[in-house]
Amino acid sequence: MGTTANGTSAATDKATSTSNGNATVDKGVDFANYFCTYAFLYHQKEMLSDRVRMDAYYNSVFNNKHHFIGKTVLDVGTGSGILAIWCAQTGAKKVYAVEATKMAEHARQLVKSNNLHDVVEVIEGSIEDITLPEKVDVIISEWMGYFLLRESMFDSVICARDRWLKPTGVMYPSHARMWLAPIRSGLADQKMSDYEGCMDDWHGFVNETNTYYGVDMSVLTKPFSEEQKKYYLQNSVWNNLHPNQVVGTCAILKEIDCLTVTVEDIFKIEASISLTITKEDTRLCGFGGWFDVHFNGRKENPAECEVELTTAPSVDDGTHWGQQVFLLHPPVRVNEKDEVLVNFSMSRSEENHRLMNVDLGFQIKLSSGKMLAPVRNKFYIE
Ligand code: SAH
Fold it and tell me: Atom 20 of ligand 1 has which residue's CA nearest to it?
């Protein structure tokens, strides 16, 4: 998964709403803002072309046939149907492939043309609303958004697990982790100069509007600058980081056991971590966040072949998830062995439960023992 849809459009179907953690979600609005992108083959193709993602899911299924042969499977958010098809090809007895969007029709076609329609049943509907005739042995889903939790689709997987997984059932993937690392990046300077350029342009606009149309707009300078500051400086940035841009140790922000986690556990992610700078005389330009997921089966029924899907900075193209970068303005000079003490907190945006707000405070402890002044920044993952 991983879309760039944001929460700016609105639909009016107020009739149906669902409870999602603490928030009540308007389904019509949710469909217009979120699900709509997944109805395009163009977007499904982007995911289907991510080799790291595809290889991980493919290997996890085909190298762990004992979890699938003769079993019942639920694919939450089947999209094009790819995961359901693999489960059937590996020997599943029955696969329920649930998809909220019209993509379900394409999935049904694909299943039929691959001669798997006796095994795979495509069901169009939200997983929260549909009913299955039986409980399943395996739940498979590709629910991960940017920085793991953006899109909040994992809530739907948890809901499916609690309703439809047998007590002995297995989750694919079984575990997930969120990571953070200190980074250097030219993006910090670039975003600042974009913001400054945009404000220069505004001042010219204010002068011209006054000269040509007789209205002084300068009272709007402050709100405009706040709006643009948020856009250029506070939004986290999608980036494919190279490992040598990571200037220190990375640390885990959150570990999730997909079999036992609750929506409350992931509603707010809070962590205090310490990162040690490993590069000599460099700039701390921000923090890079990424995730990995694991296919380990469960303790009583482990995977024969454990598979990891990581979205960490890589020398290759990486994944379509890239990393989420939280930039500092201005960057801070740091040196080897300095310690960065981070207080991280991520919660859901009040306007759209699928988007995230991040509160990232940090303090640098120099290798001499001296503490620099604490810094606190708010970021938006939109
Ligand atoms: N399984 C496919 C698609 C993953 S993208 C693959 O791996 O290629 C996630 C899909 O889940 C999207 O198509 C989206 O529309 C669907 N989805 C998200 N939330 C859902 C829900 N609550 N019920 C049903 N489908 C959902």
Answer: 77
